[in-house]
């Protein structure tokens, strides 16, 4: 099957430090891929490059008819790429001056040019989906971490993105809120949304992902179905990592 | 020692009060212009716009580094010798422009600080949903920064009102100029300047009350 998202030779350096060293990755429509690996191996940077929060130094990202070459990306291409990739942040990063509903409608009205009414109706659907139908008028400061992260996910969902990117979505949460956020991501995954998840929750990755990608040193070391990666890892580095976290 | 001529002071009050609209008018126009200019300067600095950033840094350094009176004299008496077109500018306009430039430099720095105080991750979140730089500033960053900067900006406004008294040195008859003229006629300098001082004081106190009310109000809207 054809790739929905095709990443080729993606490279990112911070100074002399090569954080991403030629990443190739193809995501099929509806595929759910979890990226695991030691800290500082470029997992989050990969996600950030796909949303152009960090500009890659080389490589190409192709999403359907949109193909962005790092060497000569235009402003319009970058904006288009961002609209088509929803990003869920580790620390939620909600707009503090907006209510939960406004956090969700902001992209629809400001970026996509929807009317307030249409965007509000869509936001209400999403609020129901994320289990916060009654908290639409709350400001982030009045919400728990779990609720804030669910709004963060709702904000990303509102874009109807081709690809949802989750950057360690539960790492900043108090343990009591992790479950509800994972449940929400699970329910989105059930809808065959293409997603790329960086996570330290191995059990979650195993259960939700169609494919596990193990990264180390800015490269993809090994990838395959969860049963294979967790049950029969081929590379020494994968084995060492899984021993440590397992 | 002679007693204060209170009857004379009471006579002066309505005369000086007559110039309050001019003083407030100059202050309001300068404040509005300075706010806009300061926001632009702050954004140039925050975004590190090439070349403009350095120019703005020099602008801010100059207007914060030299006395307002010197700036007003430079602009009103000095510059026309270089640019004859400026000769036709009247004292009020010159004072307003001078006050605008001077206070925009200070206000730019506090707006810049307030912008930088907005959590960086909110910039990224705004970018991540495809907002342009202008959209994210207008919709997300500036509304939050202005809440943070408001109390400081209010202080600058109070300072600005008092600084309009310097327009008197450019030949403008505002509150201070009017008091000076009256005193020159009556020789009752103490009475005239006391009246003008008290009127400034009352104006500032009224504003301070408004400022405290505003702070309480803004604080409630988005507590964090």
UniProtKB/TrEMBL annotation, chain A:
Record flagged with keyword Nucleotide-binding: yes
Family matches, as InterPro entries: AAA+_ATPase (IPR003593), ABC_ATPase_HisP-typ (IPR030679), ABC_transporter-like_ATP-bd (IPR003439), ABC_transporter-like_CS (IPR017871), MetN_ABC_transporter-like (IPR050086), P-loop_NTPase (IPR027417)
Domain ABC transporter per the UniProt entry, residue ranges: 5-242
Keywords tagged on the record: ATP-binding, Nucleotide-binding, Transport
GO molecular function, one term: ATP binding
Coiled coil: none
Superkingdom of this protein's organism: Bacteria
Keyword Manganese: no
Residues spanning the membrane: none
Family that this chain belongs to: Belongs to the ABC transporter superfamily.
Name listed for the protein in its UniProt record: Arginine ABC transporter ATP-binding protein
Species of the source: Paracoccus acridae
UniProtKB/TrEMBL annotation, chain B:
Keywords for the protein's UniProt record, in alphabetical order: Amino-acid transport, Cell membrane, Membrane, Transmembrane, Transmembrane helix, Transport
Domain ABC transmembrane type-1: 20-208
Compartments it resides in: Cell inner membrane; Cell membrane
Cited Gene3D superfamilies: MetI-like
Entry superkingdom: Bacteria
Main location: membrane
SUPFAM superfamilies referenced in this protein's UniProt entry, alphabetically: MetI-like (SSF161098)
Family the entry assigns: Belongs to the binding-protein-dependent transport system permease family. HisMQ subfamily.
Name under which the protein is recorded: ABC transporter permease
